[in-house]
Amino acid sequence: MMEFEDKTDAGKDPLGLRVLDAQDVELEKALTNFKSCVHAWSEAAYSRPRTPAQEIRHRSRRLAAGWALGCVLVAGSVSGGLFERHHKMVLAEITAQQRAVEQQRQLREQQAKATESDEVLLAGVDSDVSQQVPSAMEPLATPLADDETK
Fold first, then answer.
1. pLDDT 10s digits, 94-109
2. Rounded distance, CA 41 to CA 109, Å?
3. Is residue 56 part of a domain?
């Protein structure tokens, strides 16, 4: 390729034209090739089918899956906590019922002991009251009782 040169170098070439040397030609070819490659790549990029909708769908699916997994984890944690609380309440209720039954059994035993001791006491009083002869005179009353039976 040829270029016009400015008037300062006019003495070297009478027509004002100068021929580029080999390095300048190679550089010009490389830049031209680069420019054509960039234009070709740009055309290919603009003309290819766009897939942002697919990428957005893929991202939204991943986001939805993440939220769903998070919700499942939260629901599982909450339900596990509620189940544990319910289980503790049931165990406390069963323990309270067992204590009440044990207290009732102990109360019945105490009442039975009290009734038994009352019955023994009353039996002793009854035997003391039902004697025909006072205990101090009992040795004297025994021969009489034998005589009366004869």
1. 999 999 999 999 999 9
2. 101
3. no
Q: pLDDT digit string (tens) for 13-50?
A: 555 445 557 888 899 999 999 999 999 999 988 887 76
Give the structural domain span for 8: 1-49
Alpha helices in 22-51 (DSSP H): 22-47
79/31 same-domain check? no
Q: Say what the pTM is.
A: 0.38
Q: Bridge-partner residues for 3, per DSSP?
A: 18
67 lies in the same domain as 44: no
3-state percent breakdown (helix, strand, coil) of the chain, nearest 5: 80, 5, 15
Q: How many domains does the chain have?
A: 2
Amino acid at 65: A
Place of tokens 């991202």: 59
Is 58 domain-assigned?
A: no
